[in-house]
Amino acid sequence: MSQKAIVVGSGIAGLASSIRLAQRGIETHVFEANDFPGGKINSRSIGGYRFDQGPSLLTCPEYLEELYILCGRDFADFELAELNSSFKYFFNDGVELELKHDRDQIINELSEKLGEDRETVEKYLNKAEKNYELIAPLFIERSLHRWRHLLGGKLRKALASLPSYKLMSTMHQENKRNFKNPRTVQIFNRFAQYNGSHPYKAPAMLNMISHLEINTTPYLPKRGMIQVTESLVELAQESGVQFHFNEAVEEIIVENKTIKGVRTTKGVYKSDFVISNMDISFTYEKLLPTAKRPKKILAQEKSSSAIAFYWGVKKSFEQLEVHNMLFSDEDQEEFDAVFIEKEMHDSPSIYIYISSKSVEGDAPEGCENWFILINAPINQGQDWDKHIDDTRTYVQQRVGALLGEEIAPLIEVEEVLDPRKVETRYSGKFGSIYGNASNNRFSAFYRHPNYSKEIKGLYFAGVSVHPGGGIPLALSSAKIACECLFEDDQNSVK
Ligand SMILES: Cc1cc2nc3c(=O)[nH]c(=O)nc-3n(C[C@H](O)[C@H](O)[C@H](O)COP(=O)(O)OP(=O)(O)OC[C@H]3O[C@@H](n4cnc5c(N)ncnc54)[C@H](O)[C@@H]3O)c2cc1C
């Protein structure tokens, strides 16, 4: 008899899981609460401007390529844009750095503009690469909860390099030890934001994230980030996956500790397997209210959230690139406000992403689509309407001062994202964007496994479970969840 699987949610991990299941010959249905696929990776058009709503930086496209290969498709079909530079950094004192897609040029820039020693930077980047290559295959691409998946030469090699991970230091301590100029430290501390963490608390091992942006490069798909969702939906449909939009799952049905199916807003569907792409806390609270909860795991500190402004701006600015960062003068204070005081800082760093500089048609002629992202704490009932107003005023002043132009009169359309919306639109607990934060040495071990230890046939994929937040890790979680499912299925046949 043919097997049937249900995926709860069409975030990137839900889409990737559905492709893997369908390619295995399992009848696969994806139920999505929203009327659009992709979860946080979606896109909206307002008044002639198109805005990627969530991610703007694509790293590790090889995880997408794997899905193309699995479906017998050529990854060359997934066209990437060619950008002038990977990032432009602005400091308040007028120092500007443009990071080109070339490691030597980046080292030159850090040496010439910030006085860093070339050899030190080179050594730092080599170490980031080495650590990434040792750690990723184990901590990112395997289940940490099935030891036999980890054993082997790769584990021995990774353990042999333990001292180089500086397990007792934080990202900031290591960056401060390596670089002379506090601005360089701030640039490298920023990589903690890749998974919504605090660089003064996150372990130094996470400095390896810089490898993905500096040794390699952040990518942008040719049609913008929405292309990621569109192409995975296409692969899923070609593989036979059936989508049910506007149909939230309300219960995962379990009998005798075994999956029986789901109850949605429209009916009951039987299945042999369920993969939940819903936030793990909400999966337990809302879909499995009587199941035993892993309390310690669910109580872990959450990643940060964000306030984002999507502005249609009726002018174009040569000073800005596709990816821009206007750094705050108060690095630690900003992260302390977000993670400890759970408040907005009053002069935070500002990230501006302008896809229309690369993607034709994303803004009317002579105009630009600005996506402005500011770090915010998780939603604890703060006065978000006031925070949004204050942040808007601050951003307009700071960006206006940089560009020598009043910004408010240039804004034709506006949409705003805040932690409340992240929570309701994507079901992210407290509006956290990346699941759990990585603010201590043991965070990696306190993420939920990609399978249930209590319920046969139940698996989990997405940023709130192992291995964590961001597109590459979400794709990896889907792969691990499916590998565990296929392994359990085979063992049950034996
Ligand atoms: C503003 C912003 C900027 C970001 N920038 C980057 C970046 O530059 N690079 C990067 O790599 N990452 C970035 N991220 C993070 C990245 O978007 C996420 O890590 C990733 O997309 C999360 O994928 P996911 O599979 O966990 O699911 P999600 O995107 O969280 O989707 C979950 C889906 O499940 C659905 N769902 C939930 N409950 C139910 C239910 N009961 N029934 C049916 N459906 C349900 C939801 O509607 C949603 O569609 C950013 C995120 C945001 C919000």
Going across the biggest sheet, name each strand in turn. 6-5-13-14-15-12-16
Average residue-wise pLDDT: 94
N- and C-termini, Cα separation: 17 Å
- Largest beta sheet, briefly? 7 strands, mixed
Note the quaternary state here.
Answer: single chain
Radius of gyration (CA) equals 22 Å
* Shape-level CATH architecture of the domain at 4-41 and 59-80 and 223-300 and 438-493: 3-Layer(bba) Sandwich
Residues in helix, % = 25-40%
Low-confidence runs: none
How many alpha or pi helices? 16
Question: How does this model look, in words?
Answer:
This protein has 494 residues and is of the alpha/beta class. Among the domains are: 4-41 and 59-80 and 223-300 and 438-493, FAD/NAD(P)-binding domain (3-Layer(bba) Sandwich), CATH 3.50.50.60; 123-214, no CATH class. Helices cover 36% and strands 17% of the residues. It has helices at 12-23, 62-70, 103-114, 118-140, 147-150, 153-160, 171-178, 182-189, 210-215, 226-239, 280-287, 295-298, 331-341, 384-403, 419-426, 471-493; strands at residues 4-8, 27-31, 43-46, 49-52, 87-90, 96-99, 242-244, 249-255, 258-264, 268-270, 273-276, 305-313, 323-326, 350-353, 368-376, 411-417, 458-460. The strands form four sheets. It has a seven-stranded mixed β-sheet with strand order 6-5-13-14-15-12-16. Strands 7-2-1-11-17 form a five-stranded parallel β-sheet, with helices on one face. Strands 8-9-10 form a three-stranded antiparallel β-sheet, with no helix packed on it. α1 (12-23) packs parallel to α10 (226-239), α1 packs parallel to α16 (471-493) and α4 (118-140) runs antiparallel to α6 (153-160). The protein is globular, with a radius of gyration of 22 Å. It starts with a strand and ends with a helix. The mean pLDDT is 94. The structure holds flavin-adenine dinucleotide. Residues 8-14, 31-34, 39-41, 54-57, 248-249, 277-278, 306, 308, 373, 422, 426-428, 433-434, 462-463, 469-471, 474 line the site of flavin-adenine dinucleotide.
